[in-house]
């Protein structure tokens, strides 16, 4: 009877995952909101068998499920980004201006502000406060689909984009969707770049953090592991792209065969290789996807791979959000306090918006250049720092590496913040971005988000 119930619930949930994106397209309601809501309702009913979803008892399950969800999302983000990034061409780097600002300024400021709030107001120890800041800082690539670019462009649109970027054409800049691009590229990179601060919290929790430990953190965790992850990812993406598009053996040219599972193989291989040699696997997966995309930018094969990854992402998102909703009404928030609510509300409504605005408004790039933003665009990017699955992964990972004080409180606070983010950003994303698109004019959702059928 229990097995039959599980199959029934799983089938109904998969059906929801299929129909929700289309059914909610015209409503100011997101699929994550509905899925969390369903989970909340399910959690109110008695469920036969052992189904605790306790973050302490089920930490390993939470760790691996959220890890896979983030990895799949990162591969999808890397394949979806149409804007090139070439090491030897400075103009391609300047068109990513908003991304670098968000990573270099907004994320560290957010980590510091949340950590200070946790230490000075809540009374957490230094390690737990820093972990809270690192966990709640990254913009999530899984739950931010409503504010991200769609998928790879068609060849004609991509050629138009590349020409406009090469010339820094003002007309092209006016039609670029800088909001979605900035949020998408930020989500692709900051999940990996938050890891050094998670490790810093782990090192502090282990005790005896001195000058030598600080040097090790700066040289290895902040620099070395980042470089290794990026290099491994680029190498893997370059090799797989070369094989898929230009192999001397026709049987290996998977792009001609249209076999989209190469994306999943690339995801697993790049992540595993980076972790084996000590690099950050999240960065490796994103860099691998970007390198594969760069190997033959205009080929329709990227669209086929992205569609497969998008479906996998939807399934993992479904599972995580349902479990989050169920856990929320079955004890995840049992250690929630007013200080938890303060941290969650401040993170979403104050800290991220202010940090994002400062990073984008200081010495801004001209609006008529690719990478430039007007006031409305900066406000949208600053506000939509969605918190989600990555936060659960980081907390589960850190909890397995060291002992932190107030760990149940941390789980309740992070769970509350994610649910609040799903609600707030889910309600506001469609109407706000519709106004952003309307300001852009008759070009629709923008050149950088234009895709077949969209």
TrEMBL record:
InterPro entries: Cation/H_exchanger_TM (IPR006153). GO terms for cellular component: plasma membrane. Residues 16-434 form the Cation/H+ exchanger transmembrane domain. GO terms for biological process: proton transmembrane transport. Keywords: Antiport, Ion transport, Membrane, Transmembrane, Transmembrane helix, Transport. GO terms for molecular function: antiporter activity. This is Sodium/proton antiporter, CPA1 family. It comes from Nocardioides szechwanensis. The lineage of its organism: Bacteria, Bacillati, Actinomycetota, Actinomycetes, Propionibacteriales.
């Amino acid at each position: 009877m229990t097995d039959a119930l599980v199959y029934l619930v799983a089938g109904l949930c998969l059906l929801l995952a299929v129909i929700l994106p289309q059914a909610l397209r015209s409503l100011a309601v997101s699929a994550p909101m509905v899925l969390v809501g369903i989970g909340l309702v399910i959690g109110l009913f008695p469920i036969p068998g052992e189904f605790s979803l306790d973050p302490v008892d089920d930490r390993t399950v939470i760790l691996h499920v959220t890890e896979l969800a983030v990895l799949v999302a990162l591969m999808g983000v890397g394949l979806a980004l149409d804007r090139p990034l070439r090491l030897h061409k400075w103009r391609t780097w300047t068109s990513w201006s908003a991304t670098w600002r968000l990573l270099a300024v907004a994320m560290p400021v957010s980590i510091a502000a949340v950590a200070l709030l946790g230490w000075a107001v809540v009374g957490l120890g230094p390690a737990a406060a820093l972990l809270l800041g690192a966990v709640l800082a990254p913009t999530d690539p899984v739950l931010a689909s409503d504010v991200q670019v769609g998928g790879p462009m068609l060849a004609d649109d991509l050629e138009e984009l590349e020409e406009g970027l090469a010339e820094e054409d003002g007309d092209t800049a006016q039609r670029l969707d800088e909001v979605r691009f900035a949020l998408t590229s930020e989500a692709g990179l900051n999940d990996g770049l938050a890891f050094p601060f998670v490790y810093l919290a782990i090192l502090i929790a282990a005790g005896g953090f001195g000058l030598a430990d600080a040097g090790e953190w700066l040289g290895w965790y902040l620099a070395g592991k980042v470089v290794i992850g990026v290099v491994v990812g680029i190498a893997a993406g370059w090799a797989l792209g070369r094989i898929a598009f230009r192999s001397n053996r026709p049987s290996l040219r998977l792009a001609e065969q249209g076999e989209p599972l190469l994306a999943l193989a690339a995801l697993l291989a790049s992540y595993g290789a980076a972790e084996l040699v000590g690099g950050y696997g999240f960065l490796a997966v994103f860099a691998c996807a970007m390198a594969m995309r760069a190997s033959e930018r205009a080929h329709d094969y990227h669209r086929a791979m992205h569609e497969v990854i998008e479906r996998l992402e939807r399934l993992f998102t479904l599972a995580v959000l349902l479990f989050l909703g169920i856990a929320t009404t079955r004890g995840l928030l049992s250690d929630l306090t007013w200080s938890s609510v303060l941290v969650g509300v401040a993170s979403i409504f104050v800290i991220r918006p202010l940090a994002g605005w400062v990073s984008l408004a200081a010495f801004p790039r001209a609006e008529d250049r690719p990478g430039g933003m007007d006031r409305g665009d900066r406000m949208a990017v600053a506000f939509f720092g969605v918190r989600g699955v990555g936060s659960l992964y980081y907390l589960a990972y850190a909890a397995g590496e060291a002992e932190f004080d107030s760990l149940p409180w941390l789980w309740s606070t992070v769970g509350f913040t994610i649910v609040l983010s799903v609600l707030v950003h889910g309600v506001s994303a469609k109407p706000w971005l519709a106004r952003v698109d309307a300001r852009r004019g008759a070009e629709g959702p923008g050149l950088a988000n234009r895709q077949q059928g969209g």
